[in-house]
Amino acid sequence: MTATPASAAINSARLDDHLNALGQIGRDEFGMQRVAFSRQDVAGRDYVSTLMRGAGMSVRIDPAGNIIGRVEGTDPGVPAIVLGSHTDTVPSGGAYDGALGVIAAIEVVEALRDAGHTPRHPIEVMVFTNEEGTSFHRWLLGSRAVAGLWEPEDFAALDDDGVTLTDTLPNIGGNMSRVEAARRRPEEFACYFELHIEQGPTLHRGGFPIGVVTGITGRSVYHVDIVGEANHAGTTPMALRRDAMSAAAQIALAVRRIAGEMEVCRVGTVGSMDVHPNAGNVIPGRVQMGVEFRDERMESLAAAEVELRRTAEEVGHAEQVAIAVTAQRNTPSVPISGNMQQLVADASEMAGLEHVSLPSGAGHDAQAIAAITPAAMVFVPSVGGISHAPAEFSTPEDCANGAQVLLNAVLLADER
Ligand code: GLV
Ligand code: MN
Ligand code: MN
Fold this sequence. Notes:
The protein is an alpha+beta fold. It has two domains: 5-216 and 333-415, Aminopeptidase (3-Layer(aba) Sandwich), CATH 3.40.630; 218-331, Alpha-Beta Plaits (2-Layer Sandwich), CATH 3.30.70. Helices cover 33% and strands 24% of the residues. The chain has helices spanning 12-23, 39-54, 99-114, 141-146, 152-155, 165-168, 202-206, 244-259, 298-319, 338-350, 366-369, 396-415, and strands at residues 27-28, 31-32, 58-61, 67-71, 80-85, 123-127, 189-197, 210-216, 218-227, 231-232, 267-276, 282-283, 286-295, 322-331, 334-335, 355-360, 375-380. Strands 3, 4, 5, 6, 7, 8, 15, 16 and 17 form a nine-stranded mixed β-sheet that branches. α3 (99-114) crosses α12, α8 packs antiparallel against α9 (298-319) and α10 (338-350) crosses α12. The radius of gyration is 23 Å and the shape is elongated. The relative contact order is 0.18. The model has no long low-confidence stretch (mean pLDDT 97). Glyoxylic acid is lined by residues 132, 362-363.
């Protein structure tokens, strides 16, 4: 006897309402400002916790500050199907990155309740702490705690004002002294699904409603500290300067060249720079910059690092400045298993939606959770391929399609 797959439908108006409501929390004229641990982040977390309770979930906060909503299944003792993403944003970010995955996961639970269908497996919805890593420069913080992937630097993390993560975790209900208890055992989870906007141009350009993610990019991050000599901008002859900004500019162009012209790795970015003393009539004495490279092949990231260090030495010598390159993090790329990709493809077909396979150039909580359970990702189009910016947008129809695929994936996983 073959069982007919259960069916349930996303309520697209409710999904859109909830997404828009979350998109108003922490919004200002420059975009979304729900940086992890901020007052705005806390308000966003409160909103989704309320939605979870309204959807009939029990809600708890683990010691890493992750919000975990749960509904029980019909079968006792079976592991949970986990859905998750994040509600923190980059500074002046968009309203869909992370938010869609969380709101859609809650909608999946509501839609199952509307359909009167209780799956065999419990469902857990996880809202992970500090995915973006804007605070404390430690990304995927909550999901890595769940996967047991914290490093010594996470325990000792300081933000830019010197405040410790230990003192900050309680702001969101976490507790450093118990943080290891956030770790979950593989036996507790059946599998993990994350719906996310693509954040790049492929789906929108190609007219595909659904992307099946094949793997998630690796990323390496460096802190570059350049120390020259501050001096008078009007009186110091050009030949006698030790200008930290001149050196920084050359390194920024080298990062672009390493990924661009040289094609050592897929992308390279200098996204942050601190200039001291940052005054128009003073030659900068010190510049600190954040550099990152991304690629699916870890050997390409290693080659990019070699090139970055070689350039730093060359520029330091030429400009008579001291340049220290410190590796901050090296996040491995993560492949998605063929079985899990097939499940997302089947879930798309069940919804009558065309799909295409593609890698993720952005990082996601799924890449940490994949260490303890089979994980898969569903992508929907980002209009114009814009993300980490206020113009980030995905149409209500695309968001609803993605949520339906997420729901179908849960139904299929529940049967298999
Ligand atoms: C996370 O959003 C990333 O930077 O990829
Ligand atoms: Mn995200
Ligand atoms: Mn992001």
